[in-house]
Amino acid sequence: MGGEPPFSPTHGKRTKVSASPKDDRPVGVLLLNLGSPDAPTSAAVRRYLRQFLSDPRVLDFPAAIRRVLLETIILPIRSSKSAKLYQNIWDPTTGSPLLHFSAELRHKVAGELGENFVVRHAMRYGSPSIAQAWSELRAAGVRHVIVMPLYPQETSSTIGSALDEVRKVQANDWVPTPVSVIPAFYTDEGFLASLTEVTAETLAAHEVEHVLFSFHSIPQRHITKGDATGTHCFVADQCCSDLTSNVAAGCYRAQCLRTAQAVAQRLELPSWSVSFQSRLGRIPWVEPYTDLELARLAQSGIRRIAVTCPAFVADNLETVEEIDIRGRAQWAAAGGEELVLVPGLNDRPSWVQAVVALVRSHHVPA
Fold it and tell me: Is the pLDDT of residue 247 over 60?
């Protein structure tokens, strides 16, 4: 009871608590995009498609059904067909446009952010992988990682899947590095300004009568799964007409409409519409479909059209091949005279600055 108290050099003295030392380690930035095969060959495309379509957030069937569909129908048929499409857009020097522009964007963003940041880019499917980029950020000794999925609008199969993989990789660390995420930026001023800029440049170079905003489509069930109340999505024909509502703000289709509306207003477009491309199979996807919208516009008497694809920040198979090659041929066959593709944001200076601004404005704990 009367023993000496444990030794302490400050026992019985008033001590001043010092502030925590500033953490001078750099901040990591991880830019994420979907991915591309390593080469435009059947074997490489097959590997890519297997990884991509094995993702339950993409092909959302029970695992056994998904595996049967992949191995007996999808991969045997689509691997060689898709390889030929990739061959149409593959540059002999730079390769895949998506991989090329993603690397260029990373390089330029890193140059603008400076030595206090370490920037890496990764693909959800294919190379460079999220695990590889994460390992490089860890090796650089970053204290925090800002993850920026390069998808302007949010879906479970894009941002949801990418963040699943980031969490999986992060969980392998004995001492996990903290992570924060830049959300979908479909109404970000920098993004909209850059998108408006590249569209305006295209319109200045071509006399077009109509602008078509073509977004990537997704199965309708991917949207209805996110409608917790079950009372909004696709219940009414104009379910996304109120773009200010909280319900609409969380909906992929509504986010696409908000992006298109914002750019159309900035450009004061007299004639424009929205469509959705890249549907597969016979299940309902988000409409109207781009191929059918092109036919409708041609039948209405429009002859010169510009198509912009604001769901993609970098040119890829869906923009260069699907719109600029196949879409152009379809437009001509329907009686149209000119279809011009608005280039992706790629690594243009205004887009680099928009990404830098999003990163710098993102709060990171000291």
Answer: no
